[in-house]
Design brief:
mainly beta, single chain, 17-stranded antiparallel beta sheet
Length: about 325
């Protein structure tokens, strides 16, 4: 009997468990490559012990981008202290991850090393469609603008952020470290982009505008793209449509095919990439079924407006 498993993952690595150190090159889409000339970045991985690794990521020019501890390489799961860097080697942000989830206190800086903001991530149960899910939000302690002026102190104050050219992007109030009242965002031309109402850090309602003046109401700032009907329906679709290749059965070939693809604004699938696969027979079958899923996706949304999103889907073939 064959079993098919589908698990949501983000990044994978081919470094072997017995390796003490390795340098791995990656394409822009996150897949590994042996061709250094096509690489977008690389990581130096060092094994600390059986459950801990330390990863340092560089651009292909050798400029450090990030560093931090991992608990797993396959999948790539951050766990422990983590830092990201500006191209000038100044720290951009620093804090901790726990089993791949950002937690606790984080501090962010401007590229000149000056403090930008610091605060803490907290998790709150949120009821959605009759069930409770954990919602994570950032409780702000302090915030300064790029000139060094303090706008939020001890969780209280008026927050303003700007585009690189200095034009206003977003403004609103903080109370006890959480967003409160009306928040407003602007396009680079300073036309209104969105208005959001908050209470104790929770979004109550939002409305956004596109360049044509159309309006979009929403209750979540971001929504990831998903299969029509949800995850369970996706599993059902896969179980009904995947056919284990006869040749793979005969040769007892098994393993996981890691796919990445774009969910377009209209729900169609595009830009399919094979991140990792044990065999071409399994690859062809995985791609065939993914193409059957075309137009079965609900696009992601940002402030109510459809956006293209990237989706990772591993398909495991097991005899």
């Amino acid at each position: 009997m064959k079993y098919l498993f589908f698990l949501p993952l983000v990044v994978w690595s081919s470094i072997q468990a017995y390796s003490q150190s390795a340098r791995i090159y990656y394409l822009k889409n996150g897949s590994e490559t042996q061709d250094k000339t096509k690489a977008h970045y690389y990581r130096d991985i060092n094994k600390i012990d059986s459950k801990t690794y330390f990863s340092t990521q560089y651009s292909v020019e050798g400029i450090k981008q990030s560093e931090g501890y991992l608990e797993s390489l396959d999948p790539y799961v951050l766990h422990g202290e983590n830092k990201t860097y500006y191209p000038n080697n100044q720290v951009a942000q620093e804090g901790k991850y726990e089993h791949g989830r950002i937690i606790g206190e984080w501090v962010r800086y401007y590229s000149n090393g000056q403090l930008k903001e610091k605060g803490k991530y907290v998790t709150t149960p949120l009821k959605q469609e009759g069930t409770y899910v954990n919602q994570q939000r950032f409780v702000l302690e302090a915030y300064k603008d790029s000139t060094g002026k303090t706008l939020v102190e001890n969780g209280m104050g008026e927050y303003k952020s700007y585009y690189p050219d200095g034009k206003l992007y977003m403004t609103g109030a903080y109370e006890k470290g959480e967003k409160t009242g009306l928040w407003t965002g602007y396009f680079p031309n300073q036309e209104k982009y969105f208005e959001e109402s908050y209470k104790k850090g929770m979004l109550q309602s939002g409305i956004s505008y596109d360049s044509l003046g159309n309006t979009y109401k929403y209750s979540q700032v971001e929504q990831i793209g998903e299969f029509l009907g949800g995850t369970n329906q996706m599993y059902y679709f896969l179980s009904k449509n995947i056919r284990y290749p006869k040749e793979a059965l005969a040769s007892k070939t098994e393993g996981r095919v890691f796919l990445a693809f774009d969910i377009e604004k209209d729900g169609s699938v595009s830009n399919i990439t094979i991140l990792k696969s044990p065999d071409q027979l399994l690859t062809r079958e995985a791609v065939r079924v993914l193409l059957l899923m075309n137009d079965h996706w609900v696009p992601g949304r940002l402030r109510g407006q459809p956006v293209k999103t990237r989706y990772n889907l591993p398909m495991a073939f097991k005899l």
